[in-house]
Amino acid sequence: MKKLWGGRFTKSAEEWVDEFGASISFDHQLVNEDIDGSIAHAEMLSKCGILTEAEGELIKKGLLNLKEKAGKSELPFSVKLEDIHLNLESLLTGEIGAAGGKLHTARSRNDQVATDMHLYLRTQTEAIIELIIEMQKELVEKAEAHVETIMPGYTHLQRAQPISFGHHLMAYFWMLERDKQRYEESLKRVNVSPLGAGALAGTTFPIDRHYSAELLGFDAIYENSLDAVSDRDFILEFLSTSSILMMHLSRLSEEIIFWASQEFKFIELDDAFSTGSSIMPQKKNPDMAELVRGKTGRVYGNLIGLLTVLKGLPLAYNKDMQEDKEGMFDTVTTVTGSLKIFAGMMKTLKVNTEVMEKAVKNDFSNATELADYLADKGLPFREAHEVVGKLVLACVEKGCFLADLPLEKFKEATELFEEDIYSALDPYTAVKRRNSAGGTGFEQVQKAIDKAKLLWK
Ligand code: ARG
Fold first, then answer.
1. 5 lies in a domain?
2. Same domain (yes/no): 214, 302
3. What totals of helices (H) and strands (E) does the chain contain, helices first?
4. Phi-psi category of 131—alpha, beta or left, where left has phi over 0 and alpha has psi -120 to 50?
5. Residue 243 CA, ligand 1 centroid: distance in Å
6. Nearest C-alpha to atom 2 of ligand 1 is from which residue?
7. Which atom of ligand 1 is nearest to the CA of 23?
8. Domain that holds residue 28
9. Over the stretch 126-172, which tens digit does the pLDDT of each residue have?
10. Which protein residue has the closest C-alpha to ligand 1 atom 4?
11. pLDDT tens-digit series, residues 406-432
């Protein structure tokens, strides 16, 4: 097959060399974006009198036919034609004849591929934002059902202070909110048109870049033609935002995995999001959470991969940049899949309220309450800390908890203790009283939930 750029060549590459250089096996995913970009380009060319109106119309009709066929997976792509751009150009010529060869006037594959990637990431980023909102809604719904469910809060994975389970879930809500903002913010840089930058230097034809940008819904055009064809920052931004999002999902995965363990038993995952073992009949494994945790690695890899590809590349286009695509496609698939899995998993997970509450009663996470109690009565906090530390030690030696000690034991430690310490030690009261802004007090948690809901009203 003759190459579309074959004029200067006397010898053709062997098939395996062509295969090594080709990107059609993955960039076929840009088929719709490539066609949309070409339609806008053709319309601009005919508006500017570079193509006749009839030629413009013919090209547009041919491209729309190709789009319809693409929708039915009927387009015969060939590795010999290297990439999606040359494949479509060749198919267009097949469709409408020699006029197809005029489409590439005042354009290069370099601005063309950049345009495709911008269009693709715009669509995908918008879809991911919607999926984040779906997951946020599930988190809020679960949190609202568990505002007053108390559980141990941890630091160093040691029980620290009792908290509301709703509060814990809402922490992830706010992480996702920041992820969403990062994607939204990145759209400003995604939604810029490189089209018309040509190979690197612009073009001699009297084109109108603003017109094609407007047709494609871009907010602006790249100011510099070299930058337009060389910039992949917008993909890096997508990959880094996605890495942070995956890190958040991975942290929640980890918690879900140990909450679902026999040691914790805080939650039970729905059968639909767990799998069994091929050998151990009793097993119910949190595979989906584990997979999300595991897939985080490939998203980080995609980010580091592209950073490394771009490092040291001279201006302007270099073939290295063809390596920008697979990691991006893979990240879209991974992030999209993970968010969908998580929304379903959150919706269906069962919370073992009693187990959580029992856990919080059988520990020392109310020790801070006691110290606060004394501080409230005027004892410097540092001294209060010391007194309570000694009481905890006494309990550990006796094998009991603070609330099991008789009042005289407390009085021995300091006369400041009164009968009301028992209610202060109650974990439910302890949570309820943490009513500082953003704290775990039930009133605060409900406030945060109400605020969260306003975000998608
Ligand atoms: N397949 C190429 C890529 O993805 C398209 C741009 C090719 N441009 C070139 N001058 N060889 O990067």
1. no
2. yes
3. 19, 6
4. alpha
5. 26
6. 322
7. 1
8. 13-105
9. 999 999 999 999 999 999 999 999 999 999 999 999 999 999 999 99
10. 322
11. 999 999 999 999 999 999 899 999 999
